[in-house]
Design a protein that fits this description.
The protein is an alpha/beta fold. The protein is about 35% helix and about 20% strand.
């Protein structure tokens, strides 16, 4: 079945359903929009006395009928101004990041493609106008890929001497490769490190407040998962959100759990990108408005762009984690060495942890394995950021050993209490994966 034939059938189902329930409204092919390979909208025309609320009540019935036609779940969302129904594209495909333009101007972030605009165009956030940005959505919503695209586009378009970035990622995942950007002045992967970086960021804000008006370097605090911050850090963050704009200090935060306690009111984050969430109540909190329909989004990069009175549908560019290290290297090569500045880095790993890592990679090191392979074996992570530093320290420990041919091992006790030697296992610290 061709796309045109399928959409014609779905238009017939929509109009029949509206007629069956006595609703004075309808749609036709000329009012249908195909948004790339992301979603379809069917614009509606209504009679003068027809209320939108009566149409909204039919959404469950419409979803059932279209799901039966497609033979898979097909939730229907209703949008207003103009009034229209939205469903997922019959054959949805990711929006490839390579189709995007990364050169977008200094201090700007590329979020995705805005199909609500006429004509469709990229959705770009200018930090000078919109100081703080929130990304919310459950696992699978596309939150991580949007966050990556924002950071890549910002760093590609902004010279390091005009932007200082601080990273906080207690999951030790999505932000780790970005620690190698020349823009990065601080990175945190543990609870204590997170508090340190956020406190450092806040102290700089206080210094700027005390000094008054100046041509400040722009600073961005990036937090991946607000729910993993300590209460003290959330309180400090709230102060940064309140007064950071005039001092060119910004926050880009992401969370799977958009609660009032984590994100505050609508004034904290004037721009919000809300993907699929668990229910209508969470959607209302995340978007700051009722009946946004965010809970019905299909995930995989489908987002609502909320900016004041604007609520528009965008599709995030798909940028997976595998492509990020090469992009970071390209950006670093473009800008050259990082500018001289005081850098806040995570505290050094304990000596016994480094010794354990050395025990795992000893044979691999002797055989000439790559550092990335050693990082995968010892830490189950790529060779980047704080993980790279640990592998480098472990290699230095091996190189300094007087008996490099002897594997480093740890002693444990057998059931009978006798000591035995065993090679250190893969290190997966709870503090790193919390």
């Amino acid at each position: 079945m061709t796309l045109e034939t399928q959409l014609t059938n779905e238009i017939r189902i929509i109009n029949r359903t509206l007629h069956d329930y006595g609703v004075d409204a309808g749609t036709k092919p000329a009012w249908t929009t195909v948004a790339g390979t992301s979603y379809i909208t069917f614009e509606l025309r209504t009679g003068r006395s027809q209320r939108n609320a009566d149409i909204a009540r039919l959404l469950p019935e419409l979803s059932e009928r279209l799901s039966a036609q497609r033979r898979r779940p097909t939730p229907v969302r209703m949008l207003e101004m103009p009034l229209r129904f939205e469903v997922e594209h019959p054959d949805p495909q990711p929006l490839n990041w390579r189709a995007a333009t990364l050169r977008i101007g200094a201090g700007r972030l590329l979020a995705g493609r805005n199909y609500t605009a006429t004509p469709p165009g990229d959705c770009i956030v200018d930090l000078a106008a919109k100081p703080h940005v929130l990304i919310a959505g459950i696992t699978g919503s596309g939150k991580s890929t949007m966050l990556r695209m924002m950071l890549v586009s910002l760093a590609y378009s902004t010279p390091p001497d005009a932007l200082r970035i601080y990273l906080v990622d207690r999951k030790n995942e999505d932000l780790v490769p970005f620690a190698d950007l020349p823009h990065v002045a601080g990175a945190a992967w543990t609870l204590d490190e997170s508090q340190q970086v956020i406190t450092t960021f806040a102290a700089e804000l206080e210094r700027r407040v005390d000094q008054g008006i100046a041509d400040w370097e722009r600073m961005l605090l990036v937090v991946d998962e607000l729910a993993q911050l300590a209460p003290e850090s959330l309180k400090t963050l709230s102060g940064i959100l309140a007064i950071g704009r005039s001092k060119r200090m910004h926050v880009l935060a992401a969370t799977q759990h958009p609660t009032v306690g984590l994100i505050g009111d609508k004034s904290n984050y004037p721009v919000r990108f809300v993907g699929q969430v668990v229910d209508a109540q969470t959607a209302a909190i995340a978007t700051g408005r009722k009946q946004s329909g965010a809970e019905l989004l299909p995930g995989s990069g489908a987002f609502l762009y909320v900016d004041g009175a604007r609520l528009e549908r965008i599709q995030a560019y798909h940028l997976d984690a595998v492509a990020v290290p090469a992009l970071v290297s390209t950006i670093a090569a473009k800008w050259g060495p990082a500018p001289a500045r005081t850098v806040t880095r995570p505290a050094a790993a304990p000596v016994d942890e480094i010794a354990a890592i050395a025990g795992v990679i000893a044979d691999m090191w002797r055989s000439g394995a790559s550092k990335n392979a050693m990082a995968k074996a010892a830490l189950d992570r790529p060779y980047a950021g704080s993980y790279a530093a640990k592998i480098d320290r472990a290699i230095a420990l091996l190189e300094a050993s007087t008996t490099p041919s002897t594997p480093i091992s740890h002693t444990s006790e057998n059931a009978d209490g006798a000591g035995s030697s065993r090679t250190a296992p893969i290190i997966r610290l709870a503090a790193r994966n919390a």
